[in-house]
User: Fold this.
Amino acid sequence: MANPVIRIKRGTGSPVSLQLAELGFDKLNKKLFIGTEEGVFDLSGESYAKKTFVDSAVAAEASLRSSADSTLTSNLNAEISRAQGAESDLAADISAEETARIAAVSAEQSAREAADLVLDGKITTEKNRVDAILSASQADKDSFAEIVTLINSVDTTNDQAFAGYVTSNNAALAQEVSDRQSGDTALGLRIDGVETAATALTTRVSAAEQDIVDLGTDIAAETSARQSAISSEQTARQSADTTLQSNIDSEASTRATADTSLSNRITTLENASADSRLDAVEADVLDHENRISALESTIDGGSY
Assistant:
């Protein structure tokens, strides 16, 4: 006897009800259902997702991760380029400021040296005048106090002019010192600002590098999860195939046993008397027809 073809119940859409362990196939949506004690259960649910769906999900996730990596890399390169440009401009500004400060200090030194030469010349001139006055005087000056009194009485105008020049020069020098100190303070503040900006840039670059590391970790975890899901799906499919093959083998064995039993009964009928054999055959035929109808109903699930 040829192996029977088992056809389960089939229809369009989800079946309303199925007997316990009875299978139903949705021809429209290509879904498989089974009857349970709680009702109809969809075997094509999330726990039985197709491998193609999982592969598609993994591919889509990998594409998203690749796009995100590309965007992050582009943004990071742009930030590095901007930071390098800012550092170059800042270095140029610092260099220009340093050159300007050196030139200013050099100019101030030259001005001070020139002023000192002029001051030394005027002091020498005044000294010569005092010496000339002392040499030309006929008075008997026996003390330094008398000499000073004499000088003050002889050249009061020049003394006042010299004192005014010294006072003015001291004020100018004090002003220049104050200006240099203010300039140094301003330069120090600018350098502090540059250092602060450089520190902030370093922090941003470190954060971007950490984001790249975290993204790599997420991608690895996602890949591992997808691989685990694929492996679980493959295991579930193999287990389901094994169960289905076992059920088919069991049904084939049952049918073979039934065929053997029927053959034995036919042999027994052949060995009986004609009348009894005919009666028995008729009864057996009727019984057989009923069993065949029952078997056909069982093997072919029909429609729902």
